[in-house]
Design goal:
heterodimer, A: alpha+beta, Alpha-Beta Plaits, 4-stranded antiparallel sheet, 4 strands, elongated, B: alpha/beta, 6-stranded mixed sheet, 7 helices, 32% helix
Chain lengths: 296, 230
């Protein structure tokens, strides 16, 4: 009962002060909106990059050529190793006969050339699909060390390395941007709320003198911070909701090979992240700004 | 109720506002605190509701040493002490009713109790008909009475008033004195800092005289005089 009573007071005070804040409240909400809209766009950008990078990474194929010295036991050991490896998506044994068939198919009419051969010159091989390009080197090293009947390993070394470097750089830049922007928004929000609190410095002092506890004084400001953060992030989400599909539509024609994230579940997670960040910014901002005025 | 032992207060700027004060004040007393400006009257009051801490000595309120009082217990001490500030300290953006109700609201009592007690105390100071007005719309005397109402609404054990009749005409200040005496008779300890010779001499209560931070005189049923008794 007492709690409900207090809560009504806190919420009422928060809204009254928010409305009375006028231009200042609008400034605060706008600041949160701008910060979170930029923050959101960066998150979306990095989400798309991640998607792009993971598609590039998933397309790494490795072919392992075997020499003639192995027996069935050796082959079973190798396949067992591949089956147990977490990095290998799938593998496929290609015997020298199959390889020849394939080659014949690919060459079609020119198979006369092949018919001229007395024996099959192709080796047995295993085709691997690797989950992430990052683990290619590790797998190759392990296979070479363990199995001496491996003749040669072929993979698009240069492409894989370039993709690796690119995705790593992009991830680092994205993380730095997001962190910097987060700090900047928090700073702006806490300063805006500090202005609101500063305008009520006298009020806080009087509250303390008539025996209000710090918690009692803080509560309306925290709720006001929540209101500001929520409104700010809501506007940011609405902006992104409307602008992102537009951006995707425009870019799809220019960059058809990029798989843009349009999955609504993923976007929903992003929107709730933004709303949560907005509320978090509001609360932390108001806590930082009230703290200073509480030691009377 | 209130005890001070060898209390001195030196502010950060080096001003020695109080110098070795010893006093005991019993429950239900009415005390005039007099002395020239800058004698330490306001500091004396501030120590009692712990707006300031003593530099030396001990201040004991209702058996509790205020220096040892934890920060989070201070609000509960203050709820038991009503203060009428020299400069009123009313909230400009709240109306009369809200200003008074506020002191009760922070204690977390129900809205029904708040409403009942606020109205009754506003009636006591004769301002119930102006409950919806804002402080700026009131005269100095009326603001003074709002401040008194706020100090009383908690039914505090101690009432501190700093120049409560300072800028009021004699009729109103007489009314306020009558009110303070009534409150005192109901059991509240009243300490009043004042410059008004007329009031002190008429009331004949205990008079404590401060001069340059020292307690130079403490008389039962005293008169208004800064001079130390020979």
């Amino acid at each position: 009962m007492k709690l409900m009573n207090d809560m009504t007071y806190y919420v009422k005070e928060a809204f009254v002060s928010f409305l009375r804040g006028g231009v200042m409240s609008i400034t605060s909400v706008t600041t949160i909106t701008i910060s979170l809209a930029i923050f959101g766009l960066i998150l979306i950008f990095s989400m798309n990059l991640k998607e792009f990078a993971s598609i590039l990474e998933s397309q790494v194929d490795v072919t392992v050529y075997l020499n003639n010295t192995y027996n069935d036991n050796d082959r079973q050991a190798l396949e067992k190793k591949l089956a147990e490896s977490k990095d290998v998506e799938e593998f496929n044994f290609i015997s020298k006969d199959e390889a020849l068939q394939r080659l014949k198919k690919e060459l079609k009419e020119e198979d006369l050339l092949l018919s001229a051969l007395e024996s099959n010159p192709l080796p047995d091989s295993i085709e691997l699909k690797i989950k992430s390009s990052l683990s290619v080197h590790k797998i190759i090293k392990e296979l070479r060390a363990e199995f001496n009947f491996i003749d040669d390993i072929f993979y698009g070394q240069e492409i894989v390395e370039k993709v690796n470097k690119f995705t790593q750089v992009i991830r680092i830049i994205g993380t730095i941007l997001v962190v910097l922007l987060g700090i900047a928004s928090m700073f702006i929000v806490s300063n805006t709320i500090k202005l609101t609190v500063y305008a009520r410095k006298e009020e806080i002092e009087i509250m303390k003198l008539v025996g209000a506890t710090n918690g009692f004084i803080r509560m309306p400001y925290i709720i006001e911070g929540i209101v500001q953060g929520f409104l700010g992030s809501l506007v940011a989400v609405i902006i992104i909701m409307f602008s992102y599909p537009q951006i995707v539509n425009n870019l799809k024609d220019i960059l058809p090979f990029i798989p843009f994230v349009t999955n609504s579940a993923e976007l929903l997670v992003l929107y709730s992240k933004l709303i949560f960040s907005g509320i978090f910014l509001g609360v932390i901002g108001s806590l930082i700004s009230v703290r200073k005025f509480l030691d009377v | 109720m209130i005890q001070m032992y060898n209390v001195s207060k030196v502010y950060n700027n080096g001003v020695r506002a109080l110098d070795n004060i010893n006093i005991e004040i019993e429950r239900g007393e009415f005390i005039f605190l007099i002395g020239p400006s800058g004698a330490g009257k306001s500091t004396f009051l501030k120590l009692i509701f712990r707006e300031e801490l003593p530099t030396e000595g001990h201040v004991i309120i209702d058996g509790r040493n205020i220096e040892r009082l934890k920060q989070n217990k201070v609000p509960y001490l203050r709820r038991n002490i009503g203060v009428v500030f020299q400069n009123f300290k009313l909230l400009k953006n709240k109306n009369v009713y809200e200003n008074v109700a506020f002191a009760l609201r922070v204690t977390g009592v129900s809205e029904g109790v708040i409403s009942r007690q606020t109205k009754s105390v506003l009636e006591l100071v004769g301002l119930l008909h102006k409950a919806r007005m804002y402080p700026e719309q009131l005269s100095g005397g009326e603001q003074q009475r709002v401040c008194i109402a706020r100090a009383l609404v908690n039914d505090p054990a101690i009432l501190l008033t700093d120049e409560p009749t300072g800028n009021l005409d004699p009729t109103i200040s007489n009314e306020i004195m009558k009110m303070l005496k009534e409150i005192n008779l109901r059991g509240t300890t009243v300490i009043m800092a004042t410059h008004s010779k007329a009031i002190v001499d008429r009331m004949r209560e205990r008079v404590v005289v401060l001069k340059d931070g020292r307690l130079i005189k403490d008389n039962e049923r005293g008169l208004y005089s800064y001079e130390a008794d020979e």
